Amino acid sequence: MNDNRQAWQPLLDELRQRRAAAMAMGGPEKLAKVREAGRLDARARIDALVDADSFVELGTLAGDGTIPADAFVAGSATIDGRPVLVGAEDFTVAGGSIGTAAASKRTRLAVLARQERVPLVMMAEGAGHRATNALSAHRPAPNDLQALADLAGIVPTVTVVTGPSAGHGALAAPLSDFTVMVAGDASLFTAGPPLVHASVGENVDKEELGGSAVHAEISGVAQCVAPDVHQALAAARRYLSYLPSNAWQPPPFSGGDTGPRTLDTLLEIVPPNARRPYDMRAVCHELADAGSLFEIQPGYGPSLITALCRLGGCPAVIVANQPMVLAGAIDVAAAEKAARFVERMAAFGLPLVMLADNPGVLAGSVSERAGILRSSARMFAAQHRAAVPKLHVTLRKAFGFGSSVMGMNSFDAQTVSLAFPGATLGGIPAAVGGATAKADERTRRELIETEAAGPWRLAGSVTYDEIIDPRELRNALLAGLRLARSRLTGAREPVRGTGYLP
Q1: Residue 70's CB: how many other CB atoms inside 10 A?
Q2: Which of 12, 80, 119, 337 could serve as 156's disulfide partner, Cβ 3.0–4.6 Å?
Q3: How far apart are CA 330 and CA 482, in angstroms?
């Protein structure tokens, strides 16, 4: 045997042994219990997310060797052939807690994501910072939350929560663009039930404290809930499929149902009477390419629909009032949801379709105390600042600030502004406005008649580009995207100075 080859052998044997120890995670017994429970360990979760045989690990030997991979599996891979970075907390080792080496790996992933301009996916299921970190010498260094915050509007970020996630690890969720939680298993909280009891005396279980229902319907931290881990990972892959890998790239066009067609069923779905409710989701499904509608945060602020879709093969954003809930009025949750969603999607160049049918932002003392003025102003600013093709349609009505937040204002950088016949606008509904202004009978009648006259006067002043037959909706939107195609397919530079908040 060659002397050099022989000299290498002890080193290679040690490398193999150390790698095997790191790959063992929590050991055969713990891994068997995970599988028996129908769950996935950290490496199995990564394998289920990424393309087959594409994962290349980073920091396998991190830590002092006593905690495999320091309870955090990380590396690069591809999803649908596109590069991504991915990290998964390993709950079979030290409860998935974050040691000093794992913290460095988390930061390394986020720094690499920005440097190489690729999406980052984090999988949360851990106990937060490890208590024994306090025994190690502290060295000032960038932390992963700083690096993760710096990714806002630069590359897509996703957090998949598959189990309880506390403290520092849980903060990846609100800092990410898209968070999906596994129903019944996942939970997010600043501190777990034992610490809550010790600090404030409250007895609460993990589901009540921060389960998927809490964060998908009340706090708004989660954008999606999946029934199991496999569907959660599929949702993460689907979300990324609509987005470019980074803010410098155009949206990824795709084939399939991309052609024009008339939407005859809209005459059945949308009643001309503005007081009658209907399901705006049905309208969204009809206008989008077949099978492409992906609703984001359906349980939070449900009077407003936020969704991804494809129109003519182009990924697009839909923000639409839902007349089935609060008659489509925009409350605080709906406004906050829309603002956050528009900010994130505009950062990646997706065109914005706004379908207006609302009586305004939600009035009343409860709404005012909740901060409707602040939240609706944020929504207005988000859509106003969106430097993407904007396509507005008033289906039936949009009153007061409810029209402005839905992008109806003239000369607000719309690529196209449309209305259905019978659409009405105004500061407030005419009958209410006349009464509150103490107008005489003749003035009240004129106000009501003007409102009932529909959009013809506004079309005459080119407030709208065109009044369209509802059946022409998809084709009119496709024409708008065709007009904006050079913006959608050309090279992009990120829009600076328009960062967004969690």
Answers
A1: 29
A2: 119
A3: 31
- Residue 146: closest CA among 127, 115, 171, 165: 171
Distance (Å, rounded) from C-alpha 207 to C-alpha 340? 25
- Burial grade of 217 (CB within 10 A; 0-12, 13-18, 19 or more): middle
Give the span between the Cα atoms of 182 and 357, in whole angstroms: 33
Rounded distance between C-alpha atoms, residue 75 and residue 96, angstroms: 17
Name the token pair of 113.
């994501």
CB distance 478 to 312 below 8 Å: yes
- Are 319 and 338 spatial neighbours (Cβ–Cβ below 8 Å)? yes
CB-based contact 199:191 (threshold 8 Å): yes
**Side-chain half-sphere of 263: how many Cα atoms within 13 Å?**
25
- Segment 172-217, tens digit of pLDDT: 999 999 999 999 999 999 988 988 988 898 999 999 999 999 999 9
Please, what is the average pLDDT of the chain? 91
- Mean pLDDT lowest among 37-51, 264-278, 439-453, 485-499: 439-453
Q: Are strands 82-89 and 72-79 parallel, antiparallel or unpaired?
A: antiparallel
H/E element, 161: strand 157-161
3-state secondary structure 338-407: HHHHHHHHHHCCCCEEEEEEECCECCCHHHHHHCHHHHHHHHHHHHHHCCCCEEEEEEEEEECHHHHCCC
Rounded Cα distance between 377 and 384, Å, is 10
Rounded CA gap, 109 and 158, in Å? 13
- Name the residue with tokens 């600013």: 381
Task: Tell the burial category of 392 from Cβ atoms under 10 Å away from its Cβ (0-12, 13-18, 19+).
Answer: buried
Beta-strand runs (E) in 44-155:
56-58, 72-79, 82-89, 120-124
3 state DSSP class of 14: helix
Which of 232, 266, 428 has its CA nearest to residue 355? 266
Span 9-57, pLDDT tens digits:
999 999 999 999 999 999 998 999 988 888 899 999 999 999 999 999 9
Contact 304, 337 (CB under 8 A): yes
